[in-house]
Amino acid sequence: MSTVAVATSTNGSATSGQRVNWHSDEMKARRKSRYGAERRLKAYGLAAIVFALGFLAFLIGSLTLNGYKAFTQTVATVQIDVSKAGIDRDNLMDANWRDVVRDAFRAQLPDLNRRQERAFFELFTSSAPFLIRDEVIKDPARLNGPSTYVIPLADRADQLAKGEISRETPEAQRRISDEQIGMYDQLVAKGIISTPFNWGLFFNADSRFPELAGLAGAISGSFWSLLVCFAISFPIGIAAAIYLEEFAPKNRITDLIEININNLAAVPSVVFGLLGLAVFLNGFGLPRSAPLVGGLVLSLMTLPTLIIVTRVSLKSVPSSIREAALGIGASKHEMIFHHVLALAMPTIMTGAIISLARALGETAPLLLIGMNAFITSPPDGIFAASTALPSQIYMWADSPERGFVARTSAAILVLLGFLILMNAIAIFLRQRFERRW
Amino acid sequence: MTSYLFIFLAIAAILATYFGMFRARAASVPAGRARMKVHSRPIYHGLNAAIWTAVPAFIFLLVWLLFQNSIINQLVISSFPGADAMDSAARSLQMSEVRQVASGNIFRQPTPEVSAAAEHLRSLQSTSLYLMAALTLCIMAVGAFLGFKVIGPRYRARHSVETAVTVFMMFSSLMAIIITIGIVGSLVFEALNFFARVPVTEFLFGLRWEPQIAIRADQVAGQGAFGVLPVLFGTFVISAIAMIVAVPIGILSAIYLTEYAHPGFRAVVKPMLEILAGIPTVVYGFFAVLTIAPAIRDLGAGIGIAASPNSALATGLVMGVMIIPFISSLSDDAFAAVPRAMRDGSLALGATKGETIRKVLLPAALPGIIGGVLLALSRAVGETMIVVMAAGLIAKITLNPFDAVTTVTVQIVTLLIGDSEFDNPKTLAAFALGLVLFLITLALNLIALRTVRKYREKY
Asked: Is A11 near chain B, with CB under 8 Å?
């Protein structure tokens, strides 16, 4: 090797025709620096990947750390004898539930003066009377004797129980007083405090009080929106893709359609929100905040991607299948719907589920059409006002109460859970049913 | 009621398919004669009957539902005493009050006019509902009659069904054009409304963005300023920070994954990078507010710079991370498109792998990479939730990354959030901003696609 002549005019040490001594110090140094550069490039690449993945881990980790506590809720289990409270049995809705609840609380810690009593009541959720009322209305047998009720503690006591509020903080800087901490400890000593799994997070609707706020409204709003989105974009997307792939003549109109599809796929989502606001709400007068409008806007957004995915999967079906079907006398429609589409369906479904997962996480267009309203009951259809999971996250993130920080993280974990589920189904479909030709 | 109509139509279509098949089978064997040769299989007769039964009624129902609300509103408001004297703002305000009263949400005693209008509205709504149901059922009955009448051995039901399907497919593919027209149309229409109130030159070249408008007519700070430049400047500051984060990291990780990494490593790491692109942006926004922004503020305090809680740096950093997988996978494609021979040639001449990458692969893949970067930039400009949650609201022309700036998308969302009436410059300004955003992203996309395509033809 060392006898090969090299002509390098850039390097002064070796001129034309001279033999290069590869073992000279100069060449060694040069090799060293070249290999060093090689190693550095490799290290930079690895560092970039480590940074990106580290950020991902940091993101998931910090959300989990913030959010896992919201999956439990501190509650007090209290015995109340409604029959002794003098409740107006004919008008349960408007009966004096407040005094029932207050008497029950008083019984837990007797001998408090008025001021102390008020501080004590602040430990429990202020909606306790309504909770008891709803329980009794649901099960009127409770009117006849004592039974146990589970009452969530207010945000401040909940955070104390979970250690979010430290007892070491000076009293003036925390939202719960020393006196209230003392009362809380007495309740713990009596054994009525527990922290069960927070089913309310999934089955309650939104609320101004963090201890009662849940995702039921948001989840069902998202469900209805996605249903509308799927019902519109799936048939139209597949029909459009089939036409463009199998039927369309190559002319200026189809070229225009293709350019449009590619551009629409890259239009910012907020612009679709503007479209929905101007056309669906202002133009057609459809109801504001309704999952119907949300689903319509999301379907317009997913349509281009769905068309592109479907075309790719139609293209991947080999022409031998088509020719065989046509050869035994099928019409072109029969060939496509009975054979090509059936074979491409697993891939199309995979693409559809992935674009629905994208639509589930989409927030900006929903904000513009008003799906960020404060609504305290789950929607009962596509026309009722509601929120959606991502817009609920946005609303909670904006709420000033400390307790909503954990709730927001928990809501994000729920959203990510749904996304993981949908993607897992897509991956399963792909691996189980997709054909490789 | 409306949903029952839709369900009823669906059931009618299924029944029509079934009975159509039945009729077709019966018709193919006329009484007392041998089985005839038929043109179409019974299922096509059934489907044809179902299409005739349900589709015209369905289209009618959709059109009715789309237009009934605006027509009813028009009727109610024009019968309202003194409607001619009202401008559109007063009209829509009055209309929403009437609607509230009509649906039973009464907050204060309505005036007799409002009660009368609410009564009118309710009667119109119920008339509309019954009329709609009756007409839909009529159309369905006529369709079913026609659909069943044609069933016979010689009728070419398959052709009829296939034509209907083709028409549906053609309409579906026109949707892409319809959507684009809808976007451009609504943006341009509302933006023109805006420019009728605020001059175009002021919007395009103004240096102040203060979209407050007077609540009372005699308010001093009434006018508000609609100069788009500070907003655009903020958008590009945040996008630039995002690109500074994302471009080197994206390209370097693509280089490592395509050239150095073991295939097993690549198979694991690439999907994990893609997860970054799949996380909803509202999650990034919350993360930026909760974790990154305080960290940046502490950092600023550490080096003696007062950082705003909504610093452009925090927003841009998080947005950059969101874009990494985008740039990474597009660079990946660009590297993969470089012919094997060029790589081998360089290696055979004695270049190290790193030298091959820097001196051969990168220049060859550069157009593709630039295209990808432009696409990523367009995504950064149009990104909404991260900036809405983490960036500032005050438009300011500053290059200090620790300061808060605002972006086009933030302004669109804040101007339109809550109840919006289409009559004041504040609401309309959002559409003008939307038009600007649409044009910028469209231009970036077109340039990017052109760059990529040009480059592809090269090898």
From this structure: no
Tell me if A52 and B325 make a contact (CB, 8 A cut-off).
Answer: yes
Of A47, A59, A262, the CB nearest to B287: A59
- The predicted model scores a pTM of 0.89
Give start and end residues of each alpha helix (H) in B150-291.
157-197, 200-205, 229-255, 263-278, 281-287
- Closest B-chain CA to A43: B256
Q: Nearest by CB to A260, which of B73, B177, B186?
A: B177
Give the domain range for residue B99.
Answer: 2-155
In-domain check, residue B196: no
A-chain residues near B103 (CB < 8 A): none
Task: Determine, for residues A394 and B255 on separate chains, whether the beta-carbon distance falls below 8 Å.
Answer: no
Give, in order, the Cα–Cα distances in Å from B169 to each of A244, A333, B14, B60, B264.
Answer: 9, 11, 21, 19, 43
> Cβ of A244 and B173 within 8 Å?
yes
B133: in domain: yes
A50: how many CB neighbours lie within 10 A of its CB?
11
Please, are residues A295 and A226 in contact by the beta-carbon 8 Å criterion? yes
| Element housing B399 (H / E) | none
Chain B environment of A284 (Cβ under 8 Å): 66-67, 69-70
Optimal mutation site among B252, B318, B440, interface A, most CBs of chain A within 10 A = B252
Domain boundary among B94, B127, B155: B155
Give CA angle at A414 (A413, A420), nearest 5°: 85
Interval A137-164 mean pLDDT? 84
| Residue B202 maps to a domain | no
Instruction: Report whether B60 contacts B147 (CB < 8 A).
Output: no
Q: What is the distance in angstroms between the Cα of A349 and the nearest Cα belonging to chain B?
A: 18
pLDDT tens per residue, range A305-326: 999 999 999 999 999 999 999 9
Q: Does A271 touch chain B (CB under 8 A)?
A: yes
Same domain assignment for residues B237 and B129: no
Q: Pick the last residue of a domain from B155, B190, B217.
A: B155
Would residue B341 count as lying in a domain?
yes
Domains contained in chain B, number: 2
**In this structure, are residues A293 and A342 in contact, taking their beta carbons and an 8 Å threshold?**
no
B295 and B405 part of one domain? yes
Amino acid of residue B282:
V
- Among A48, A173, A436, which residue's Cα sits nearest to residue B327? A48
Any B CB within 8 A of A35 CB: yes
> What are the pLDDT digits (tens) for A77-122?
888 887 777 777 777 777 778 888 888 888 888 878 888 888 888 8
Whole-angstrom CA distances from A273 to A123, A308, A368, B93 are: 42, 22, 5, 23
Shared-domain flag, residues B356 and B449 = yes
